[in-house]
Amino acid sequence: MLEDKLSTVAKAMKRSEIRELLKLVAKPEIISFAGGMPDPTLFPSKLIAEVTSEVMEKEGERALQYGPTEGDTELREKLAEWDKVDIDNILITTASQQGLDLVSKIFIDPGDTVIVGYPTYLGGLQAFNSYDAKFIGIPLDDEGMKVDVLEGTLQKLSRDRNLPKFIYIVPDFQNPKGVTMPTDRRKRVLELASKYDLLILSDTPYRPLRYSGEPCPNFFHLDGGMERVITLFTFSKILCPGFRLGYIVAPPDIIDKLVVAKQGTDLCTSPFNQAIVREIIKQDKLDRHIKKLVSVYKEKRDRMLSALDNYMPKMEGLSWTRPDGGLFLWLTLPEGMDANRMFERALASNVAYVVGSAFHYDGNCKNTMRLNFSYPTLEKIDEGIKRLAKVIEEEAKEVL
Q: Rounded distance, CA 138 to CA 26, Å?
């Protein structure tokens, strides 16, 4: 009976596989590589407490009141200065996940096509799917989305008069694979977007968390006229996720539409949280905190890579990515193995991961998994990989 009353959008909604999975791995004895959570011991709790007290003392009444939908003006000015754009290019959001929803709301009609990475961030798939989008996946290699496949796909879609509304890319330390798109490939994607008059939705939650290699320019800096790139940022990974604070950089006419869509969603992002983050940035304390994160997470990444090198069985088809930053790496099992089937064995050995099929809109590529290194301790990374290696070895004996 309820099904008859639901909207088309509600019927298209699906629970997040990762959110459901985290319920299963919450037991303290399980070493979890499953979540995408920052290390909570690194949250700058003392700093936040001090700045919160200052905000309440100096501007408590204003910070506790409703605010403009566009966001705190001074915070937007700081972010515009940070990203070398105009303030009219910036909209504050309730984290970047709201950005995904707002972009979907203003661009996707039921049945519209969206190009995504294959695999790609599950939260993006979930947001687009809620508006009944149809997906076309472009495979990734060690340098991100394969541009030759993208070009051929766009040629065919153009002939069929079925061009996508936008191309969704996580260019820096991609979730889930951990790979980064180099500058020349970004330029080629922009050329294709210009040729076919497409938008690019660039999702950059991990960009400041680089541990090796040289940074690549953001898509909107390569797009000199700021005509076709929408970029999502968040403070969840570089400060704390509890603030639920992010922002969008986009052309002013797109920002205007996003503001209208946001007004119908939450009126405004928490002015109180915005005031705290604005003061942390003004006091030059965010950059210092990010440097600390980079130092700690680099050590954790290195420990996981070292553990994989040391403990994983030597078998053909078993490989993993070596990310330059971010929170994740991607492990591929030999053909014929199934990370979904193996998950129960892993749980029984008190280790957990996210099945790779969750990041593929069609549920394929079951011989893959995503591993997170930011949350567990160094000791748990080492022990967890040791357990996982044993699970893989036992499973391989049964199925290969």
A: 34
Percent of the chain residues past pLDDT 70, beyond the cut: 94
Does the pLDDT value for residue 17 go beyond 80?
Answer: no
What residue spans in the chain does CATH classification 3.40.640.10 cover?
Answer: 45-285
The candidate with the shortest Cα–Cα distance to 169, out of 197, 184, 189, is 189
Q: Is the pLDDT of residue 320 over 70?
A: yes
More confident: 203 or 29: 203
**CA dist 17 to 47, 84, 249, Å?**
34, 37, 29
Q: Band of the pLDDT at 23, cuts 50, 70, 90?
A: low
**Mean pLDDT of all residues belonging to the chain:** 95
CATH architecture of 45-285: 3-Layer(aba) Sandwich (3.40)
Residue with tokens 């999502």: 232
With contact defined as beta carbons under 8 Å apart, do 332 and 368 qualify? yes
Strand-pair category, 199-203 with 166-169: parallel
* 105, 131 Cβ separation under 8 angstroms: yes
Neighbouring C-alpha atoms within 13 Å toward the C-beta of 357: 13
Question: What is the Cα–Cα distance from 389 to 304, expressed in whole angstroms?
Answer: 12
> What's the distance, Cα to Cα, between the start and end of the chain in Å?
47
Q: Write the single-letter amino acid at 167.
A: I
- Cβ atoms of 222 and 236 closer than 8 Å: no
Task: Report residue 242 as tokens.
Answer: 């509890």
CATH code for residues 2-44+288-399? 3.90.1150.10
Query: In terms of residues, how long is the chain?
Result: 400
Q: What is the location of CATH 3.90.1150.10 in the chain?
A: 2-44+288-399
The single residue listed with the structure tokens 């040729």 is 195
pLDDT in tens, 244-294: 999 999 999 999 999 999 999 999 999 999 999 999 999 999 999 999 999
